Structures
1.
Amino acid sequence: MKSMNLSFRLASLLLSVLFVLQGCTVYKGSISLDAAVMKQQKVKVTTTESEKPLEFEKINLVDGEYRGIPKRYSQGTEVVLDKDSIVEIKEHDKTLSNIISFSPLVIIIAAGVLLFSNESESSEE
């Protein structure tokens, strides 16, 4: 009975880790504003005006103005970016984000296989 209780605790711990890491987005190194426009991918922009970094799906150059398309909640609205107030722009690291998002799932499956194989061996004896 104790081993079964321990198995459930371990499974619940692993599931909670999975839920925490599921939506992680990893950003890497600093890039220029023009490079962000050329790459057309997710970016995180740190400005002097905002305490919290702003996340954008992409940045466009329209009529000489840099405009960021917000990542969430504000669909259809664009944010005009002041080139002088930008401190840093980080680009989305797709590979590392995928690895971090799916590695807990692989770990949980492996742990589940090990736990249930150990339980079935101990119940056979």
2.
Amino acid sequence: MSLRGLSLLLAGLLAAPALAADRYLVESSLWLDGQLAGTPTLIVEADEPASLERGGEVGFRLTLMVEPVLDELVPQDILWLHVTIEQLGDEGWEELADSMLGAREGEPTTLSVVEAGQEATPESASLFLEARISRLRPADQPN
């Protein structure tokens, strides 16, 4: 291997931990059958799923993963948000949605499940999720 090739490999290895350390704050509101089920907030490491489970009358499990878009033609504030939502029923966890959303950092993005021809609002949807992603800067990140 040439000295240049070794330098590029070393630079890539040194950069990899910095990329993997990107963390995001995902603030969301989840409505199920027209009722606010919760306002979960998660800190998510890039490309690593994070889950939150809530019991109670309207039990749910929310799993999120933030994936940076690695395309130089796409603005750096555009992210992929992988979302899985499950509801606790008599038979255990039932998957309600499993989707991937394009999201702009700092702006709300939504996911909804409605009947055909129905307007998607928190009150009318069987499932309505609104999420906002913010990149945590090193000074903002908890240890």
